[in-house]
Design a protein that fits this description.
The chain is about 0% helix and about 35% strand. It is an all-beta fold and about 350 residues long. Strand 7 and strand 8 form a beta hairpin. Among the domains are: about 80 residues; about 110 residues, no CATH class. The protein contains one helix and 21 strands. The strands form five sheets. A nine-stranded antiparallel sheet has the order 1-2-3-4-5-6-7-8-9, with no helix packed on it. Strands 14-17-20-19 form a four-stranded antiparallel sheet, with no helix packed on it. Strands 15-16-21-18 form a four-stranded antiparallel sheet.
């Protein structure tokens, strides 16, 4: 092979072209190889001791140049006299300027799949925001995950398994998350702001299966503006039992028992000798005061129902009746009318507290 040597500073060239067309072909000059058509240079391959620079294109509009350059074993990609991308010999590919280049483009230039062995970092610094955007072109739906401006790192780690229907993704510190089943009503509701406002009807999921409160854990008071509908029994629960105090209408001595609570129960008493007429037979005292409408002082309304012969045969002139003049918020006083009760006789009554006034 005979070398073709150009002296330093020489402008000599060698051309390979078609006969009669000296402006189109492969040309060699002191700067390297270039391709020309009709006198216009389109591509050049140049090099020196440290670089191999190839695929140089001269645009028809001027001097715009694009290079694919190997420099010290790194690959440079340059467009229009501007360095755009660098691929290092170790395989790392990065743009030549920070936050200047895109990988793919929307509406026709999207990449298909991306695989990352360790991290996907968004944003150019801890004080800037990066966005992770998911788009569904069929529906125009877009979901954006965006980090706020901050001066530190934020960690967000997803669970390693899929959740189940009805679960939520919950963070529990240090960026860790897990799938969480909401407690609904199976756990205690704490820290509710008073008053708790309910703007919908409150109803059980299944008819006639759930209770409001329980025998050993009761609600305090129930306030209704309209009606109360009870499908089965209205019961008294486990409230304290009232006490009975003898009056002269029961005789000089008596024996009495009461079983029940502040709502209903059973009274048995046996008169002593010489019961008085027009006198108090007994006073029923309740442990908790009754409150009337609008939170004013009230008094109990108690109804007696005879449940033995002596009680049932009290005449019209000797019936037990509530003494309204002796009422209080904790007592119900029952008197006998003009005819006295029989001496040493047993009387039995059911009692029911109908409400308060």
């Amino acid at each position: 092979m005979v070398p073709l040597i150009f002296p330093d500073g020489s402008t000599s060239s060698l051309a390979i072209h078609r006969a009669g067309d000296s402006d189109t072909g492969l040309f060699i000059d002191a700067n390297g190889f270039y391709f020309s058509k009709d006198g216009t240079e389109y591509a050049r391959i140049v090099g020196n001791d440290n670089q191999f620079k190839g695929v140089v294109r001269i645009k028809s509009s001027g001097i715009g140049q694009s290079y694919l350059t190997v420099d010290n074993e790194d690959l440079w990609i340059q467009f229009n006299n501007t360095l755009r991308w660098v691929m290092e010999k170790g395989g790392r590919l990065y743009p030549a300027g920070q936050n200047t280049q895109d990988l793919g483009y929307p509406s026709g230039g999207e990449l298909r799949n991306g695989y990352f062995g360790t991290s996907l970092n968004l944003g150019i610094s801890t004080s800037s925001q990066g966005q992770l955007i998911f788009r569904t072109t069929a529906t125009g739906f877009t979901t954006t995950v965006e980090g706020g401006s901050n001066t530190g790192n934020i960690t967000f780690k997803l669970p390693v398994t899929n959740g189940t229907d009805g679960q939520y993704l919950r963070a529990y510190g240090n960026g860790l998350t897990n799938w969480f089943t909401p407690p609904y009503a199976s756990e205690t509701l704490n820290n509710l702001a008073a008053p708790v406002a309910i703007n919908r009807g409150l109803q059980p999921g299944t008819d006639n299966t759930l209770d409001l409160g329980q025998n050993s854990l009761s609600w305090a008071s129930l306030y209704l503006k309209k009606d109360a509908y009870v499908g089965r029994h209205l019961q008294g629960g486990t409230l304290e039992t009232p006490t009975l105090t003898r009056g002269d209408g029961a005789g000089t001595t008596w024996s009495a028992t009461i079983t029940g609570n502040q709502m209903c129960g059973y009274i048995t008493f046996t008169t002593g000798s010489s019961p008085s007429s027009n006198a108090t037979v007994f006073t029923m005292t309740f442990g908790t005061a009754f409150v009337g409408p609008a939170s004013v002082t009230g008094w109990p309304i108690v109804n007696l129902i005879p449940c033995n012969v002596n009680a049932a045969t009290l005449g019209a002139n000797s019936q037990l009746y509530p003494d309204h003049d002796s009422k209080s918020s904790t007592t119900a006083v029952f008197k006998i009318h003009s005819n006295a009760l029989a001496a040493n006789a047993e009387y039995r009554f059911y009692y029911m507290v109908m409400g308060t006034c």
